[in-house]
Design goal:
This protein has about 600 residues and is an alpha+beta fold. Helix content is about 45%, strand content about 10%. It has 22 helices and 15 strands. The longest helix is centred in the middle third of the chain and has 32 residues. The chain is elongated and about 90 Å long.
Length: about 600
C-alpha cells in the first residue's frame, strides 16, 4: 500500500450532497476511507448531511459466482449506503430489515460471527455460544491470557525491533490454542485460518466495494476448512476419550494425566491453568445440545477468526493512540504497573477501545425495501455499511489531537466474545507497556516514525516498534562457525594446539571482560568447521573488539588455519575482525535464547569481582 504525503491528504474531496456516483466516485471514496485525516473529515461531513450517503460498489450485484445458464446474470453495481453518526448507527443496528448476508460467502450459511446482533439469522448458534462462554469468568480467563502473552513474547521479542501487528496476531493465536484446547502442532492451522479468515472479513466488510480481490475468499475458505476439519476431529476425540480412559492409559502409562485428552493436547494443568476448567472445544463436545459436530466446529472457527483479528486490531490501534499522546502514554505505563490501579487501568482500556474500535465498520444487507433516513430509501438487496467508529464523540486530553469519534452505546456492538477477549487485551497491554523504552520505530531515511500501516482505519498490516532488549534479556549468545583450511586433519590439529597453549590467556581475557558468562570451542562436521560459543552481556561490537585487542596474537595464530580470515594482525584491523565474526555468527533458530536469570549480568553474579 503506497504511503501518501500528509499534505496531499488534506486535498482529498468530501462527497457532494447526493453522494458519489460511478467508478470515479467509488475510487475517490476509497482514498478518503483509507486515510485517517480525510476519513475523520468525511465522518463530520456525513453528520451534517444526516448521517447517510449512497455510493456505487465495485462489487458485483450477485453473490453467486456461477449462476445457472438459464438465468441472465445481473448487471451493474451493487448499491451501498454508508451510515454514520450515533442516531443513524443505532437505528441501523436495530433494524430487523437488515441481515447478515454479506458474511455468508466467507463460510456459508452456518458461519456465525460473535459480532452479530441479537435476533440475527444465527440466533440459535448465538444462544448456544453465549451459554458455552458464560463459565469463562475473568478469574478463569486471566491466567490463560497471561500465559498466551508470555508465550508470544518469548518467541517474538528476540531483537530490539519487532512488528506489533505480527506479535498481536501471535498473542491471539496462542490464546485460542490454550483456551479452545487445540494441540501444539495445530498452531500453524490456527494462524493460517485466522489470518486468511480475517482478510476475508475485511474484504466483505469494506474492501469488496472498492476493488476486486478474487483470491481472498477461496483462500479463506480453504484455510478455515482445514481448521474446521481439525476442530471436528478434536470435538469427536473430546467426546470419546472419557469412554476409553483405560485403553488410553494402557498405551501411555507414563502420561496418566493425558489419558482423557486427545493426542498432542496439553492438559491445562501443564501450563498452570487448572482454574480454566474444560477448554472450549471440550465444553462443546460435552454440551453439544442439538448441534452436529460440523456445526460446532464451524462455530469454533468463527470465534477463532474474530478473536485473533480483533485482538490484533485492538492492540495496534490502542498503542498507536497512546504513542500519539505522550502524556497519556506515560500515565498508561504507570497505571499498568501499579496493582492498586488495576480497575482504573481496565476502565481506561475500555475508553481507548471505544475511541478506536477494533472493528470500525459492520456490513448489513437489506432483506426488504425501507426508508433508512428521511428521503433516503434502501432497496431489497442493497448493502449497508454501518460506521461504528463514527457514532459519538470523545474529547481529547489536553495537548493531544482529537482521536476521532467513538461508539459507547452500552451493548458495545453485541459481541458475545468481548469478555474473554477484553481480558486478553488488558494482559497484553500491561506486558507491552512494561517493555523498556518502548517506542515507534523511526524510518532511517526521513527520520519520522514508520507508524501503523492499516486499511480502512482498522485492518492492521504492520506496526514496527523498538524496545531495549538488553534491559529485558541481558545475555546474548554468540555462535561463530568458521571453515577450517585443507588438509583438515593438519589444520584442525594445529588449532587444538593453539587453544591448548592459549587457555590461560583466554581465561584471563574472559575474566577481565566482566561480561562473559560461558565460552567454549567446538569442532563440527568431523573437524571441517570450528565453532566458538559464548554467552555475554551487552553490545556485540564492544564485546568482540575487546578480544581483538586483548588476545589478538592468539586469534592471529587461529586464523592462520581458517578460511576467509580477516586481515592480520588482528590488532591493526579490529574493524575487519568484528565484521568477520559478525558474518560468521550463526544466530539461534527464530532468534530464540533462554536464560534462567534474564536480567542478571556477570558482576551481579560474581559480586563485582573475579569469581
Amino acid at each position: 500500500m503506497r504511503r501518501r504525503d500528509p499534505a496531499d491528504l488534506e486535498k482529498l474531496p468530501v462527497p457532494p450532497l447526493g453522494g458519489w456516483g460511478g467508478f470515479a466516485g467509488n475510487q475517490a471514496l476509497a482514498l478518503v476511507l483509507d486515510e485517517d485525516v480525510p476519513r475523520h473529515k468525511l465522518a463530520a461531513h456525513l453528520l451534517a448531511l444526516g448521517g447517510v450517503m449512497r455510493f456505487a460498489s465495485a462489487d458485483h450485484p450477485e453473490d453467486d459466482p456461477a449462476p445457472p445458464w438459464s438465468e441472465p446474470a445481473p448487471q451493474g453495481h451493487r448499491q451501498v449506503h454508508l451510515v454514520a453518526g450515533r442516531a443513524a448507527v443505532c437505528q441501523a443496528l436495530q433494524n430487523d430489515k437488515l441481515g447478515q448476508a454479506p458474511y455468508a460467502p466467507i463460510g456459508g450459511a452456518s458461519f456465525m460471527l460473535a459480532l452479530e446482533s441479537p435476533g440475527a439469522e444465527h440466533q440459535r448458534q448465538r444462544d448456544h455460544a453465549e451459554a458455552l462462554l458464560r463459565p469463562y469468568t475473568p478469574a478463569a480467563i486471566d491466567p490463560v491470557a497471561q500465559a498466551a502473552v508470555d508465550h508470544a513474547l518469548a518467541a517474538a521479542l528476540v531483537r530490539d525491533r519487532f512488528d506489533l501487528a505480527s506479535l498481536a496476531e501471535q498473542i491471539g493465536v496462542r490464546f485460542c490454542g490454550l483456551w479452545f484446547g487445540f494441540a501444539a502442532p495445530d498452531h500453524g492451522l490456527i494462524q493460517a485460518a485466522a489470518a486468511a479468515g480475517y482478510r476475508a472479513l475485511v474484504h466483505q466488510i469494506v474492501g469488496r466495494h472498492f476493488g476486486a480481490e478474487p483470491t481472498v475468499l477461496p483462500q479463506a475458505r480453504t484455510a478455515m476448512a482445514q481448521l474446521t476439519a481439525r476442530a471436528s476431529a478434536l470435538l469427536s476425540a473430546y467426546a470419546e476419550l472419557p469412554q476409553v480412559k483405560g485403553e488410553v492409559a494402557s498405551r501411555m502409562p507414563h502420561h496418566l494425566a493425558r489419558a482423557t485428552w486427545p493426542e498432542g493436547v496439553d492438559p491445562p494443568s501443564t501450563w498452570g491453568l487448572a482454574g480454566l476448567g474444560d477448554p472450549l472445544l471440550k465444553a462443546m463436545a460435552l454440551q453439544p445440545a442439538d448441534f452436529s459436530v460440523q456445526e460446532l466446529a464451524t462455530l469454533a472457527v468463527g470465534l477463532v477468526v474474530g478473536t485473533v483479528g480483533n485482538v490484533q486490531a485492538a492492540l495496534c490501534l490502542v498503542m498507536q493512540q497512546l504513542f500519539t499522546c505522550p502524556p497519556t502514554l506515560e500515565k498508561a505505563r504507570a497505571m499498568a504497573q501499579d496493582p492498586r490501579q488495576r480497575q482504573a487501568f481496565e476502565h481506561e482500556v475500555w475508553r481507548w477501545l471505544d475511541e478506536t474500535p477494533p472493528v470500525a465498520f459492520v456490513p448489513r444487507r437489506a432483506k426488504a425495501r425501507f426508508e433508512l433516513a428521511p428521503g433516503h430509501t434502501v432497496n431489497e438487496g442493497d448493502d449497508v455499511i454501518v460506521w461504528l467508529a463514527s457514532a459519538g464523540g470523545t474529547a481529547a486530553p489536553a495537548g493531544c489531537p482529537q482521536r476521532g469519534l467513538a461508539f459507547t452505546e452500552g451493548h458495545r456492538h453485541g459481541c458475545i466474545g468481548q469478555g474473554p477477549v477484553f481480558r486478553l487485551i488488558v494482559q497484553a497491554l500491561r506486558a507491552l507497556l512494561a517493555l523498556p523504552s518502548l517506542a515507534e520505530a523511526v524510518d532511517a531515511v526521513h527520520g519520522r516514525p514508520e507508524g501503523l500501516r492499516r486499511r480502512w482505519g482498522f485492518a492492521c498490516l504492520s506496526y514496527p516498534l523498538v524496545h531495549q532488549r538488553a534491559r529485558r534479556l541481558a545475555q546474548q549468545p554468540l555462535n561463530v562457525v568458521m571453515r577450517v583450511k585443507s588438509p583438515v586433519d593438519v589444520h584442525a590439529e594445529a588449532i587444538r594446539r593453539v587453544i591448548a597453549v592459549g587457555v590461560p590467556r583466554i581465561e584471563q581475557a574472559l575474566r577481565e571482560s566482566r561480561h562473559v558468562h560461558f565460552a567454549w570451542f567446538e569442532f563440527l562436521d568431523q573437524g571441517r568447521l570450528l565453532a566458538l560459543h559464548t554467552v555475554y552481556d551487552g553490545d556485540f561490537d564492544g564485546y568482540v573488539e575487546h578480544f581483538a585487542l586483548k588476545v589478538d596474537d592468539l586469534f592471529d595464530r587461529l586464523f592462520e588455519h581458517i578460511e576467509g580470515a580477516p586481515p592480520l594482525p588482528v590488532s591493526e584491523h579490529p574493524g575487519a575482525f568484528v565484521d568477520v565474526i559478525r558474518a560468521s555468527n550463526a544466530a539461534p533458530v527464530h532468534g530464540y535464547f533462554f536464560s534462567a536469570y534474564p536480567r542478571t549480568e556477570v558482576p551481579d553474579i560474581t559480586g563485582g569481582g573475579h569469581p
